[in-house]
Design brief:
By secondary structure, the protein is an alpha/beta fold. Helix content is about 30%, strand content about 25%. The relative contact order is 0.23.
Amino acid sequence: MVSDSLDLVGIRTNVMDSSIKPLRRGMKLSGYAATIEFVPSSDYDSKDPYGDAIDYLDSLKKGEVAVVATGRSQKSAFWGELFSTAAKKNGAKGVVCDGPLRDVNEILETGFTAFGDSSLPFDYKGRMRVKSVRGSVLCGGVEVNPGDFIIGDIDGVVVVPAQVIPEVFKAANERASGENKVLKDLKKGMSVRTAWDKHHIL
């Protein structure tokens, strides 16, 4: 419904790549984007190799979704059990990553909601580095900015730009109400054509 409502305001490309899925069927995600971007690099600070990521994790706030942009890299995993534990402690709602996750069973045990495109054991140290934190990123083929609204489930991940959040959610709520009416009529035996002619919703 949110994706359809984005269509109504002329934003037709804000669904992330279909390869990005929840770790477990039934996981649902919603919250405001807190972005971080990784790029390939073999360089790292031997004394503090995770410094930028640590600072990012400590900055996460209640209600935020970690959006991890990797350029769809398969060089390493970008999120695991410890990151999930730290993010959950800060009140973050979940993570969306367009690269691999790791510690999948352990993430599931934390109860933290996680979406990724695959799993991989590799650490990112010496393979990737943090390029930016809380900037504009391209994640799963969609531009994401801090404060955009992220909503996801088994169907996919939708990005609602901050400037249209009120408009899109008003339209989505109206559509939800309309779809409920269509569903009731279909269950009563109404034909699809009659339901369409009556409600103009499918």
